[in-house]
Amino acid sequence: MKKVLKTSAxxxxxxxxxxxxxxxxxxxxxxxxxxxxxxxxxxxxxxTYFDNATLPASEKPQPWPLxxxxxxxxxxxxxxxxxKVTESVAFLxxxxxxxxxxxxxxxxxxxxxxxxxxxxxxxxxxGKLTDLDKERSIDVIITRLRKKIEIDPKNPxxxxxxxxxxxxxxxx
Length: 172
What we know:
Layout: H1 2-21, H2 25-34, H3 77-86, E1 92-95, E2 98-101, H4 104-114, E3 120-121, H5 123-130, H6 135-149, E4 159-162, E5 166-169
Antiparallel strand pairs: 1-2, 3-5, 4-5
Helix pairs in contact: 1-2
């Protein structure tokens, strides 16, 4: 038993030594900076422990490529009217003094559901709206939306699942 422990300890020491002298020593710094300071994951000010470089602005900046459907999906009449009345320019949810931005896929789904409260949307319906064909991807988007609109996302009040049918948005 002692021989196994000594061998294991020697292997661990050799591995740590190899990491330390190789190009992978940043792993040791990362582990010691995060985990050995009482954190369980990266934290807000961890950048102060690592080398930082400011990148100069490009002399020839290029715009981000736009999605093929950028500005091609129109809003419903009700939503257009609402935006004109409220003069809104973006989709944002504020819950418990926290702002949640809505990405384009979430916007498409939420907009359709808001304009059809109480209507059941199957995964297939949502997939057609968003060009997603994987059920799991749709479930993830619904979960993200719930986190943004529900007080208790694990027990949703508004965006509910109808087992075997799909999802429905209830508006009070």
